[in-house]
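Bumping with the actual sequence this time:
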Amino acid sequence: MNYLIPANTKRGQLILGLFRPFDLILFLSGVLVTVILLAFMPLTNTWLTILVVSPAVICGLLVTPVPYYHNILTIIIELYEFCTTNQKYYWKGWCFMNGKENHWK
């Protein structure tokens, strides 16, 4: 009567157990933009260097794995959907009577 259920069955569908194909495309595009900017921009100023390296850093942070979510990008998408959609919650707590009167009085 003991059942063995895998702890995380979705990890087998991910690349290296962490990334979706979109995550890798996003990260590699950020790195590619950074490499192109490094090749063509003169890095004489500290602020310019930070600006040139920022696409790879931002994309890397977006695909960073987070507990209870897939990654930071997933958290941002879910927060946006939560804030922009109409939320309607139905109470089904322990005192909910489904529209019936309380006859215990």
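The tokens above came from a reply further down the thread. The chain has a mean pLDDT of 82.
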